[in-house]
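Hi everyone,

Forwarding the result from last night's run.
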Amino acid sequence: MNAPERRWDPFAELHSLRAELGRLVGSGFGRGASNNIDLDQTDEAFTITARLPGVAPEEVALDVDVREVVIRARTEPAAGAERAFEYRVALPADVDPDRVDAVMDHGLLTATLPRVVRGGRRTITLGSGGRNVIEGKRPTPSDPAADREMHHPDTTS
């Protein structure tokens, strides 16, 4: 009787790689990382709280993108046992990277990330004859100034 063919499982390989990275680098890559990070949200901002015991404030760096925050930290070398951490936090909405406020106090990092304020919704459709209809308002054909502004800009100025 032939043994059943074993198929390669890429997810098992990925899980194994992640576990090994967690063992080598610290708990930042392992499954325990979620216990060290909290994400709270309000209508105005997201707040990330990260527990980084034994880490000095100058040893912490935040990389902020509009939808992701990467927290990198390392402990000061004490007795030759330096540890590095990296936490990745995916955000459910866009934030403004230029307005991030981060404070480190006794091993507790608190970062406030303001949400991006966007304008309201706008609908633009094409009406008959190629005229733009913006939010249901159509320039009247009897208004030549409106036709000139929308389709034939005055280039003689």
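Helices lie at 10-25, 144-151.

Cheers,
N.
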